[in-house]
Design goal:
Blueprint lengths: L5 H10 L20 E7 L5 H16 L2 E7 L6 H13 L4 E4 L8 H9 L3 E5 L8 E6 L2 H16 L3 E7 L5 H14 L5 E8 L6 H13 L4 E4 L2 H13 L7 E5 L3 H8 L5 E4 L2 H16 L7 E3 L3 E3 L7 H7 L5
Parallel strand pairs: 1-2, 1-3, 3-4, 4-5, 5-11, 6-7, 6-8, 8-9, 9-10
Antiparallel strand pairs: 10-12
Helix pairs in contact: 2-10, 3-4, 5-6, 7-8
Length: 325
């Protein structure tokens, strides 16, 4: 029987992608580390924001030799489906879950169950009410609300009547942004917030709410929209009613629709986040947690207020279009 020599054995292993070549005499070989499995679970797997989060996560997965599993719900309202996804990927053998939670309270049980089974949980974009979350990575929503209010004061002349349009009355991010707006304007006598309305996730609902507001409020000077869907649909209705420029609109996020409205002067400014960074840092932090390294309990990612002029500045372009850098 033909005897297989040491170098041939190494060549066979090379073909399997496990070693880089024949070892030198006396060199100790060690088996490669097992690949880490990380599940990224987002709120809306088809949304532009979450696609950018995924790109950042994929960049980190490549850098840190991670098997990345991407999933999410079809809309930003289904906490029960997200809980089921967390359970599913823990059962699949995920060493960590990077979670953009639908609900601050409702995902806590799923997070704690994952932790009991040995999967580290890193929260991105939205927090979860559980001490078992190893780290949170996202913006300071309260400060982002204050930024939006300051920009609206600038474009509207620090006076007038305004409304706030949010996604859901139970959405923690929106609640913190609204509080930031109200606190920023608390000592500004010339500004009045007429009301806050929530339009939910059904397509077209924010457009309808905007129409109702513009009809009901009469001389309305501005709208602050707290998320991408509310922002784009409010802009659409402002233009449809020929109120662009007359009703100022300060938005959140940077969907393609919002950027078009911004260039056309229907949106005066928008508060942008860095979803690529959230995805990248989410996976990197998950790897550190799996390796039992110390991780920061909270990492605040960047926000910027951009308008039709500053959107073309190079630093802002990097945040708006990270995939072309």
């Amino acid at each position: 029987m033909m005897r297989i020599g040491a170098c041939m054995l190494v060549s066979l292993v090379l073909m399997a992608g496990l070693l880089n070549g024949c070892s030198r005499k006396g060199e100790i070989r060690t088996a490669p580390e097992r690949q880490t499995n990380v599940a990224l679970i987002v709120k809306d797997r088809s949304g532009e924001f979450w696609k950018t989060v995924k790109m950042g996560a994929e960049a980190a997965a490549k850098e840190f030799n991670v098997n990345l599993m991407f999933d999410g719900t079809d809309s930003e309202t289904d906490a029960s489906e997200q809980s089921a996804l967390v359970e599913k990927y823990v059962a699949y053998g995920a060493n960590a879950i990077v979670l953009a939670s639908e609900d601050y309270v409702k995902l806590a049980k799923a997070v704690e169950a994952a932790d009991r089974k040995g999967a580290s949980v890193i929260a991105i974009e939205s927090e979860v009410d559980s001490p078992k979350v190893r780290s949170f990575i996202g913006i300071d929503n309260y400060e982002a609300g204050r930024q939006a209010a300051r920009k609206m004061s600038e474009v509207a002349g620090a006076k007038g009547s305004f409304v706030i349009i949010g996604h859901s009355s139970g959405d923690r991010n929106s609640a913190q942004r609204e509080k930031g707006i109200r606190d920023e304007w608390a000592a500004t006598p010339g500004i009045k917030i007429e009301e806050t309305v929530y339009c939910g996730s059904e397509k077209g609902s924010c457009k309808k709410k905007t129409e109702e507001l513009l009809m009901r409020q009469g001389q309305l000077d501005g709208i602050l929209a707290l998320n991408a869907a509310a922002s784009a649909e409010a802009a659409s209705e402002i233009e449809a009613m020929n109120r662009q420029g007359k009703v100022k609109l300060v938005a959140f996020d940077n969907s393609p629709e919002e950027l078009e409205w911004l260039q056309e002067g229907v949106i005066q400014a928008t508060v942008i986040q860095n979803p690529f960074s959230m995805g990248y840092l989410g996976v990197k932090t998950a790897v550190d947690a799996i390796n039992r390294e110390k991780v920061a309990k909270r990492t605040v990612t960047e926000t910027k207020v951009i308008d039709a002029e500053s959107m073309f500045w190079s630093d802002n372009q990097k945040m708006l279009f990270p995939f072309v850098q």
